Every structure is written in structure tokens, then in C-alpha cells.
Hints:
The structure holds 3 protein chains of 3 kinds.
Chain A: E1 18-19, E2 27-28, E3 31-42, E4 45-56, E5 60-64, H1 71-78, E6 86-91, E7 94-95, H2 101-106, E8 109-111, H3 124-131, H4 140-143, H5 150-166, H6 182-194, E9 200-204, H7 212-227, E10 231-235, H8 239-245, E11 248-253, E12 256-261, H9 263-267, H10 270-277, H11 281-285, H12 290-308
Parallel strand pairs in A: 5-10, 5-11, 8-9, 9-10
Antiparallel strand pairs in A: 1-2, 3-4, 3-6, 6-7, 11-12
Helix pairs in contact in A: 3-6
Chain B: H1 4-14, H2 18-36, H3 44-60, H4 66-88, H5 93-112, H6 117-120, H7 131-135, E1 143-146, E2 149-152, H8 153-178, H9 180-190, H10 192-197, H11 202-225, H12 237-250, H13 257-281, H14 290-311
Antiparallel strand pairs in B: 1-2
Helix pairs in contact in B: 1-13, 2-8, 2-11, 2-12, 2-13, 3-4, 3-5, 3-11, 4-11, 8-11, 9-11, 12-13, 12-14, 13-14
Chain C: H1 9-15, H2 23-32, E1 39-41, E2 48-53, E3 55-56, E4 59-60, E5 65-70, E6 73-78, E7 84-89, E8 94-99, E9 108-110, E10 120-124, E11 130-132, E12 137-139, H3 144-179, H4 186-203, H5 208-237, H6 241-263, H7 287-309, H8 311-321, H9 323-328, H10 333-358, H11 366-381, H12 386-402, H13 412-426
Parallel strand pairs in C: 1-7, 2-11
Antiparallel strand pairs in C: 2-7, 3-4, 5-6, 5-8, 8-10, 9-12
Amino acid sequence: MSSSAGANGAPVKSTGLHVGEPAPGVKKVDPIIVADGIKRQFGGLTAVDVEHLEIPRGAITALIGPNGAGKTTLFNLLTGFDKPNEGTWTFDGQSISGVPAFRVARKGQVRTFQLTKALGLLTVLDNMKLGAKGQSGESLARALFPWFWRKEEQEIEARAIDLLTRFKLDAKKDDYAASLSGGQRKLLEMARALMSQPTLVMLDEPMAGVNPALTQSLLDHILDLKKEGMTVLFVEHDMHMVRHIADWVVVMAEGRVVAEGDPHEVMANPAVIDAYLGSHHDQDLGDPDTGVVTAIKELADDDADESKH
Amino acid sequence: MIDWLLLFSNAAQEIISPTTAAYALAALGLAVHFGFTGLLNFGQAGFMALGAYGYAIATLTFGWPVWGAVLFGIVASIVFALILGVPTLRLRADYLAIVTIAAAEILRLLFTTNTFEPVTGSANGLQGYKGGFEDLNPIPAGTYGFGPWVYNEYDWWVRIFGWGLVALAALITWRLMKSPWGRVIKGIREDEDAVRALGKNVYFYKMQSLIIGGVFGSLAGMIFILPRAVVPSNYQTSLTFFIYAILLLGGAATVLGPILGSVVFWVLLSFFSGFVARAVEAGWLPFMSSVQAGQLRFILVGVAIMLIVIYRPQGILGNKKELAFVK
Amino acid sequence: MAHAASSPPARKARRLVVSLFATVFAALSLSLASPAAADEVGLDEYDFRIFGIVELDDAPLEDVRLVITGSGFEVEVETDAEGRWAVGVPDKADYNVTLDEESLPEGIAVIDEEDETPNVREVTVGQSGSTVANFFIGEGERNTVSYVDQVLDRVFNGLNFGLLLALAAIGLSLIFGTTGLSNFAHAEMITFGGLMTLLFGVFLDVPIWLAIPIALVLSGLFGWANDAAIWKPLRRRGVGLIPLMIVSIGLSLAVRYVYQYFIGGGTSQLPGATDTTNSVGLFGLTWVDVASMAVSVVVLLGVAYFLLGTRIGKATRAVSDNPALAAASGIDVDRVIRIVWIMSGALAGLSGILWAYFRPGVSWDMGFQILLLTFAAVTLGGLGTAFGALVGSLVVGMFVEISTLWIPSDMKYVGALVILIIVLLIRPQGILGRRERIG
Ligand SMILES: Nc1ncnc2c1ncn2[C@@H]1O[C@H](COP(=O)(O)OP(=O)(O)OP(=O)(O)O)[C@@H](O)[C@H]1O
Ligand SMILES: [Mg+2]
């Protein structure tokens, strides 16, 4: 299933996603999400302040930024789990600002959570079945009469077992989800999200806390999603992984989008280094000295490579 | 000396008593709320009061037939569930607890106040609503039964009707919880945000659950008043706590647990209170008056609630792994 | 909760100017007076009679109109210069006597808190062939000046009640903030303060100025004991918050009936609680009321200083905010929680003592009566914020008392609970609370 990787292990990247120079808020050829003027404040703190953002369709986009940059908050806003102070956004051309979370999910924009939400006291299989959309047995009136939904239930179960097999969880299907390991729960949550056959999957730190042995298989899953025509937006702190699979990278710091571009260009962007080293460092250094910045950047990249080995 | 036979016979009577049935049904409603959906409803006494008063008022004030009165009680509890649910089901679980307990108290105070005396009978409550139910009794007059369970035709009719309702409600709950609907409900108990992220209208499901459990509570309130009068002081918060004790005893996330819990609870309580009362009379407990002996049962229930939650949170029938407590 | 302690008789007696005559006395005065003096209707025609006298502060009210109906019969009468009236009626039966409030002087009304329509009385003409119908006449709602007085009276009562509620609510809120426990047994900590004062001040005859401090110390110890014996071990076991809450319900039930086991179901008074003679002469306040408010305010200021000004208070707030972070930054969380329990116990005990003076009386379930209001206050203010609890308590206290101006007093808790539900509808996180984060 890791067939999406090229001969030498490097995945095939999508290119030509944007129109014009890559800068924060750059237009995309075929955006799936278009957000405008989104602002979210917690008391005095502005957690998210995004002027314009487009997420390209059919590609893997990484959302990166230091801790507290507002990535999760932006996820919450885009998926209807939180309400912004101002701003509008569309999904697939339809406005979904202010639409409740469950409707957003029904439209095909499904998310996972940074803190995994496995439904502990349901079996793994039940977790999966819950993901399927539009089940007639989920209506109260029909629930009482199994002959209305028995066939559908069998189909869903077959699909769930198929997905579980792909995620190597099929042996666990009758266990309570609470008994899974942290990494397995991440996998389960992702697989469950896929049960709804979404058009856009939003993964909040899918690799966090996952055993390195599992990360490769997770990466492969994410690449598989793209091959199946899904759009992926994911938050990740591990720069190496971002460079490995992302077609496009959006960098947030202190609530704003500070840079956008393909993974290699973005890593070379001084604004990104600013973001990671602290916002005031350019003032401290006076005029940004490109030499110094490049050195820092290289250091950062080396660190990332280092940690890989 | 203590008449042990009488004690055992009294305790045995509790097994099929309509009060046991009423508590079982109310606890089953609470199982739907708390055990399966994770809703902290502390106002089950309010739902029971609505069933009891709804039935009695529809009969006495409106002069409706039995089926109309039952329907009225059910509709009243549905409206109550909607009023409770609309503001609170979007909030954190502990807010629902406080709002439901408050709402049940509001109901009790409204039933107790002198302002509505002509309809509610205020503190004295209502009686004389049983005629219609008696007329439906298919059992010919006479005394039937064996052993400790010998009753007249009305008492049997009340028991058959009450336990019939319990059985029906248990069947419905069992079917529902095995269906995809039940899966969503249990998912909500585990983590409602996760279920929401999967495209389920969590609010709607919680409302349905609140209504179903509330209707069970309301029907339980009707069974409860068949062997007695409607008195507002019966519907205090401690009624809800007793039902919680039963639910926890039997197993919160099970269908048969609440029923078994109710039987065990009442048999033990009857035996224990009977024993203490007789022991006081016989002079075995010289430091205790008979009034004090009556209070001992409440102390016992309180201690039992604590011990069950701490040492056997899954109850008698619950699966250790599937205990209802998550957070 | 809320077995509706209706307004105590002492207070009512103070507010109302009662002109109720015993039947014998009224009959006597009627027989002594010349028949012409009373405005009489139909006394000669009929054998049976209803009569009465309308007075305010012993001053007769003239030309007050009354309508007597019943038994298919209706008659009107007006009082004479001495406030007297009498009518003849045809049967020994039940009659309604309605006093027309429009005919009373400005600012005067018929008042009876227990009665929705105090200006209508039901009387029965029985064996004796005659009966009396008199009314509670007082400075009524229609007078703007005395209405203000009434409002002020209620406001001060509400303030007093709100402050004593705040003492309990802050403890409840601090416990919730630091341990996550919604402690239903807080009610029993409130009762404990009243009980201990009763034990020492009345049963053991310790002077009250000594009995109260003893009770407070014991209440603090009781709080500590609660934590040490039950909650700390349960925290160690890692029992979840909802099970903990249910344990507290069991504890509340058990302890409450243990109280009843020992003191019975009645109400006992603390020294000075029913003494209404020592009035301050202002808005119907007594010195006990004033002292109660003063103590509450001083203690609340002390709590505020503790939370804002002392190291351990700041640590308490840090633990409330984020226990894991606080522990990581070197705060001794266990110590903070212990102190919170001792403090909450003492505050709840004090609240119980003041509540015993406010109701007035000590009873086995007195804490349980205000538990729900305490929860309402804490929820209103925002769960887990101490200052929110104070604001919430004042809102609840004021609302409960002031609403009795419009709704029957046996429904006064209904209003507060309805407000709770409405506030949650508008501002789910409470008045001063914060929203939870998701994901
Ligand atoms: N419910 C909330 N209440 C108050 N502040 C919040 C809330 N949610 C988020 N914040 C604040 O908003 C900022 C952004 O948080 P967010 O969780 O979006 O960061 P993030 O980019 O996801 O960080 P990380 O990489 O660590 O997950 C942080 O400063 C956080 O403290
Ligand atoms: Mg995050």
C-alpha cells in the first residue's frame, strides 16, 4: 500500500497549485477551502487572525507553526467546533461559516483531534461503523425494526473491516477502543474519519506520540488518501515529515499566516525562522542579515535530518 | 420476639410490588439518560411528578378517560424534556445536572404552592383518580395468589399493568441499544465531539434520549400512584437519588440492571427496615427510638450509594470494562 | 431542597399592621354600639348576619365598600365613621366577603402574604347565626412611598441572604475549582455550623460569643475530615469526577439523616434569633441582621485578600486554573486542597450559623434547603471562579427576596431557579466563567 512512493521512496509531489508568487494568502488554481478575515479572540489574546487563506484541492497541505500559533483553533473554526469573532469561509464553493460541526462533517469535511478521541467503551468495529454516513438505522423510528437496516449494516461492516485491514487493526476489531495503544488510537481515529468517505480530511497532529515504526505506515496512509482523490490538510511539528509528504505548506505564527509555499521554499523563508525563533528577533538583530538567517535555517534543517536518523 | 416469617414475607412481597416496578421503570429511564447517553439527569423525580400529576389532573380536572390521561402525562414529560434540553444539552454535563435538579424542584414547588390549589391540591395532593383504571380491570373480583403474594383483583391488576409496562420499556430499550441509533448514543457518552465530527447531530440524539428516558420516568410516576395518592412531598430530590442508587446497584449501562437493582433494593430495604423496627420494639436496640429506626434506612441508602460507586461502579450486572463512567 | 421556609412570622408581624378582632370582642362591641352607628343592610329582613370592622392602626376607616355574595344572594355595604359594617343574610351558608380596595385611602391595602387575593374572605354562617369577617389592613403596594420601603426591606433581606449564601458558595466553588468535585455534601457542612452552635450555645449553655467560634473551628475541622477521610483517598484511586459527584450525593443523604437521627425533625432556635425587639429602626432590620451582614462582608473581604494577596491564595488560584501546570511549577497541590477544604468547611459553617439566624432556626436539613440555591449561585457566576460565586450569590439572594414582592412567597425559590436556567441559556459559561477549549 505504500505504492504511492516513487522508486527511491520519495512520494510524487503535486505542483502548480498556486497562481502568482507564493505569499501568505496566495490564490490557488483550484481551492477547496477559501477563508476570509477570520479572527478569533480569547479575552485579550488573538488566537487566530487570518486575512485570506486558500487550501488547494487534491493535494496534501501541511499547516505548521510554533506551539500556540493557532493551528488547532483554526481547525476548530473551519470545522464549526468554534465560532470566530469575525470572518467567512467556504468549502467546495459553499459558504459554511456558522454552520454547525455535524453539518460541516456531512458535507464531506471531516477532522481528527490533536488529543485523540477514540470512543473507549465502544469496540473498535463499533467505532468504525459509527463513522459511516447516512445510516437509516440511526433514526429513532427505524432503529426499533432491524429489517430496515440489517442489510445496510452488513455493507458498512464489510467496509469497516476492509479499512481496518488496511490500517492493520482488523485483529483488534472486537476489543474495546480503550485497550488500544496511543498510536493505534490515532490510526483508528483516522480510519473512522475515512469511513464517512470525505472529500477533505483534516488531521490535527496525526503523528504526535506515534511510535516511529508506525509513522511510516501513517505517512503511507496519508499519501494513499491523496491518490484516492481526497484533499488532506494536516498539522504537524516534525519538519522532516512535512517536507516528505506535503505538496504545500502554510505557516502560522501568533494567529497569522506568515508564509506559504512548497515545502522547500517555505523552509528557506526568513519569516518562518522568525516565527520559530520568536517574533521579536528581527528587531533585536536590526536589519535582517540574510547570512545569519540562512545559517540558522540550515541548522534547523540539519536538526530535522539529524532527528530522522 | 421477632416474627421472622413476617419479615421475610414482607420482603418477598416487594419483589412484585408496584412501587418496585415504578422505581425499576424510572431507573430504566435514567439508564437511557445516564448509563447509555451520559446525560446527568438529576431531575427524574420531576418526570415522575409530571406523570403522576398529569394523569391525576387530566382525570380529575379535565374528566378525561384513562388513555387520554396517560397520553397527557406523556406529553407533559415530553414538553418538560424539551424545556430542559433546549438550553442545557449544548452545555457541559455538570450544567445539565444542576438545571435538571433545579427544574424538578421548580415543578415540586409549583405543585406544592397554594396558588394552584384547586388543580393540584397543594400540599395535600390529589386522590380519587383511580376509577377509570379500576374499570379496565379484566380480573373478576376475588383474592388470588399463593404464599406471601395473595392480593385482590385490583392489586393484581396494578401489578400486572406495572410490570407489563416495565417489560415493554425494557424490550424497547434493548432493541434501541443494539441498533445503530444506540451506537450513536453510546458514542455520545464516550465523547460527543468525536461523534459530532463524524456528522451526527449530537444535540438531536441527546434530546431524543432525554425524551425517551423522561417518558419512562413519567410512566413510572403513573405506576407509582396506582397504589397510593399523589402527594407533592414524594417528589423530592431524594427520590431521584434513590433511583440513582438503584441504577448504580444494578448496573448503569445495562437493560436488566435497573430492574434487578430495584428488586434487590426494595427487598433489602424492606427486610432491613422491618428488622430494625421489630428489633427496637423487642428492646434489642435500647438506644434507638422507633422514629430513629425509620431514619436508618436513609443513612443506609446513602452509604450504599457511596460504597457501590467506589467498590463496584459497574453494578451487579455491568461489565467491568463497560462501566458507564468515562470522564 | 427548598422546603420553602416561608417568611417567618416575626417579620410579617413587623411589616403588617394587623386589625384582626376576635369574634367575641367584635360581637361585644357591636352589641354595645347603637344599631344605627354601624352601616347596616338587611339586618331586619334576614335572621343571619355577617359583620366586621375595618381599621388601620386602630384608626377606623370610613366609607370602605364591601360586597357580600353567596347562596345566590348579593349585598353591598359601606363602613361607618367607626369603621363598622353589618349585613343580614338569608341562610346559614358560605359567603364571600370582598373588600373593594379602590375604596380604601391612597397607599392602604389588604395584605396577607399567604393569600393570593387577601381582599376576599370566605366566611361561614354557622350555628351561632352570625359571623365576623375582618381583613389585614396595612400600608399596601399602591402607595409609592411605602412601596419603596418594602422594596428596600426586601433589598436588605436579599443582601443579607445573598451574602450568607456567598460564604457557602465560595467554598463550594473553590472545591470545584481545585478538585473538580461538585460537592452535594456541602449542604451538610452548612448544617454542621448551625448544629454545632446549637450544641454548644444551647444544649451545653456556652455563651453565644464563645459558641460561635467553637462551631467555626469545628466546621473547619469537619471540612478537613471530609477531605482526609473520603475525598483524598478517592483522588488517589483516580475515581472520575462524575462518580465523585455521586459519592457526594450518597454522603449528603447519609450525613443528613445522621443529623436527623440525633436532633429529630424539628427546628430549634439559637439565642437571640427570634428577638425582634432590638430593631435598628431602619427598613425593619434587627441588630442580628446588621451583625450578620457585617460579619459576611468582613469575612468575604478576608477571603478576597487571601486569594489575591497571599502566596497560598495565589497558589489556590493557580491550582484552580490548571492543577497539572501548578503541580509542575512546584506548588504543593495537596496542601492547597487541604487548606481549601478547611476554609470551605469554616465558611460553610459560618454560612450555616447566619442561615440559622436568617430563617430563623436550626434543623437537620437546613443546609439542604439552600444547597440548590448555592449551586445556582456558583453556576450563575461561572463554575469554579470564586468571585463569580460571590456575584452569583448576590444575584440569587436579591432575586429570591425581591421577587416576593410579586410572587407568592411559597414560590420564591422558583424565580431564582428559573433565572439560573435563563442565564445559562444566554451565557452558558456563567457570568464570570470562561469557555472550555475543544480539540
Ligand atoms: N478555549 C480557549 N480559551 C483560551 N485560550 C485558548 C483557548 N483555545 C486556545 N487558546 C489559546 O489560543 C492560542 C492558540 O492555541 P492553539 O491550540 O490553536 O495552538 P496550536 O497552534 O494548535 O498549538 P500546538 O502546536 O501546541 O497544538 C494559544 O495561546 C492558546 O492558549
Ligand atoms: Mg494544536
